[in-house]
Amino acid sequence: MEITLTAENYDSEVLKSDKPVLVDFWASWCGPCKMVSPIISQLADEYNGKVKVCKLNVDDEGSIAAQNAIVSIPTVILFEDGKPVKKLVGAHSFDDYCDAIDELL
């Protein structure tokens, strides 16, 4: 299951997480984001219990997007121990995301 991030839950879900976190930075008007969305859902199922999979709408949470230096979307950032460890900008394949996640596990 994907977690929708907001200013209220970002710290607890991402920065203070006891497991790796994948954050998909997206927007509703972004075509490539729509292409990546089903892949993100598939990752949430595949890594359930091992990795937290979250989505953050950059239009709704612009300050968090700015804090993470998001300049183009979709951007996926993998966090470990509250720190960004890998950033994938643009649309990628399911296997690309799996490879990035597997490096952390």
Query: What amount of the residues lies in strands?
Result: 25-35%
Order of helices and strands: EHEHEHEEH
Could you tell me the mean pLDDT?
A: 97
Principal-axes shape call: globular
Give the spatial strand order of the biggest sheet.
Answer: 1-3-2-4-5
Number of strands: 5
Distance between the amino and carboxyl termini: 19 Å
Q: What structural category characterises the helix and strand content? A: alpha/beta
Low-confidence region ranges: none
Radius of gyration, in Å, reads: 12 Å
Task: Give a short account of the largest sheet.
Answer: 5 strands, mixed
Helix content: 25-40%
Summarize the helices and strands and which ones pair or pack:
Blueprint: E1 3-4, H1 10-15, E2 21-26, H2 31-46, E3 52-57, H3 62-67, E4 75-80, E5 83-89, H4 94-104
Parallel strand pairs: 1-3, 2-3
Antiparallel strand pairs: 2-4, 4-5
Q: Could you characterize the architecture of this molecule?
A:
The structure is a single chain. With 105 residues, this protein is an alpha/beta fold. It has 4 helices and 5 strands. The mean pLDDT is 97.
